[in-house]
Amino acid sequence: MSWWSTTTCFFADLALRETGIAELLPSADAVIFDEAHQLAEAGVQFLGATLATGQVIDFSRDLLAAGLQHARGLAPWSELAGACDRAARDLRLAAAGPLREVRGIVKLRWQERGERPEFVAALQALGERSREACEALATVSEIAPDFPKLQERARQLSARAATFAVESAPGKVRWIDIGPQQARLVESPLDIREAMREQLESHPKAWIFTSATLGADEKLRWFTEPTGLDDAVTLRVGSPFDYPEHARVYVPRVFPRPNEPGHPVSVARLAARLAQSLDGRTFVLTTTLRALQQIGQELQAEFEHSGAGIAVLVQGTAPKRQLMQQFLAQPRSVLVGSQSFWEGIDVPGEALQCVVIDKLPFPPPNDPLVEARVKRLEAEGRNAFNEYFVPEAAVALKQGAGRLIRTENDRGLLVVCDPRLVSMGYGRRLLAALPPMTRLNTEAEAVGWLAELRALSQPSA
Question: How many CB atoms neighbour CB 114 within 10 A?
Fold first, then answer.
């Protein structure tokens, strides 16, 4: 009997099998997905289509280099490469429109750009230039190994341009990511139901999906519905950790709401007070990059003013692995991280004993993929907030809280700086999704608990 496990490899293999060219993974009698909560989003990414102007620019450079090295004079390589490069840059400008200076990534609805005449013309031109390059490469394909590979890249670029030139199929959504250097055209399925059902029906075997966060209800619908596993046998197993004894959760009732201007500063100041009580050993998890920067700057100002001597490590100032190494090597520190630090981070023991979450991690309502999913639910007569936003937030919140207790001996404090968790009706659902930590009602109680933890960590005389 054979088995294998990796969500990314699974969908990469699925994509290769559909081309008929190759297979990445061997046949198996059992398929085991660990961290299966990532399955749906990973599948959406792999099963979608992307055309990035940066890909075209890279192709044009490789085309020019290979053409001049191996087949000089056999085709107008400079003209072909230059035409592809210009087409890519023209498409990026048409996609950006009035957005001349872009920091980070700006996500645009397809309707905002994709239907404009200048964008349509630029996309058509890119497809034509890619096709011309493909035809030229076909004439020299036997001269050097580089040429068949370049020909396939040109063919794929032309095919992707043709895909985005026609109307999107039902069940899919398109958008455009604009960055400082490139534009990415993205087409994504809303979920992986059909793809997974096809796999289950065509490849009879044992399929096992496991994770600490697959949903809050007995049927685990948050996971089973978008993956087409409605008929799956589900099993919920309790945690071996003694959360009521070893963990506390504090939600400040009197606190700015997340949409109020003073919220990031209040989060940073509360986190600073708690971190000083614990002498560091704190994570601050944010839901947005903007809040990340604001909270990081305010924390640094707070510690400089108080002379606490606690370092602030902010995501983006160094590679993720380096930040984690610094955090572990320097206990008197606070690490401020966004999405990539909410899961996949394992800091057992006394190195991390306080996790502060800035607000409830609801999906961004203006994200094109989120909008499309909401519209589909509403078209089915369902309540998108109760059936999509709240379950998504519950799983993400549990993932963030999961950074705190990693072994049976760990102790810590979770702080959620969002009063909606205790003031709104849906807050009860979100609290119930968290591990059964003992509730604290005041900051004084939270500081007292951290003082206990700090005392326990001190070496005995």
Answer: 20
CATH number assigned to the domain comprising residue 145: 1.20.120
**How far is residue 202's CA from residue 330's CA, in Å, rounded to a whole number?**
52
Phi first, then psi, for residue 209 (nearest 5°) are: -125, 125
The answer to whether 222 touches 398, Cβ cutoff 8 Å, is no
Residue 342 covered by a domain: yes
Residue-wise pLDDT tens digits, 71-110:
999 999 999 999 999 999 999 999 998 876 777 788 999 9
Q: How many CA atoms lie within 13 A of 342 on its CB side?
A: 22
* Domain count along the chain: 2
The predicted model gives 98-123 an average pLDDT of 87
Which has the closest alpha carbon to 119: 215, 51, 17? 51
**In which residue are the tokens 């001597």 written?**
309
Cβ contacts of 251 within 8 Å, gap of 6 or more: 415, 416, 417, 418, 419, 421, 422, 439
Residue 59's domain comprises 49-189
Domain membership flag for residue 22: no
Are 179 and 298 found together in one domain?
Answer: no
Dig out the tokens for 126 from the structure.
């890119």
CATH of the domain at 356: 3.40.50.300
Q: Is residue 25 part of a domain?
A: no
3-state helix, strand, coil in the chain (%, to 5): 50, 15, 35
3-state class (DSSP) for residue 438: strand
Three-point CA angle 56, 58, 62, nearest 5°:
115
The verdict on pTM exceeding 0.70 is yes
pLDDT digits (tens, 9 = 90+) for 410-459: 999 999 999 999 999 999 999 998 999 999 999 999 999 999 999 887 75
Q: What are phi and psi of 172, to 5 degrees?
A: -130, 160
Which of 189, 215, 230 delimits the end of a domain? 189
Strands (E) in 164-254, as ranges, are: 172-178, 183-189, 206-209, 247-250
Hey, is 48 helix, strand or coil?
A: coil
Residue 280 pLDDT exceeds 60? yes
Looking at the DSSP assignment, which residues form a beta bridge with residue 185? Answer: 51, 176
Alpha-carbon torsion 270, 272, 277, 283, what sign?
Answer: positive
Residues 437 and 302 in one domain: yes
Q: Decide if 61 is inside a domain.
A: yes
Residues 72 and 178 in one domain: yes
pLDDT tens by residue, 302-327: 999 989 899 999 999 999 999 999 99
Asked if 185 and 248 sit in the same domain, the reply is no
**Over the chain, what is the mean pLDDT?**
91
Cβ contacts of residue 303 below 8 Å, gap of 6+?
A: 272, 309, 310, 311, 312
Same domain, 268 and 177: no
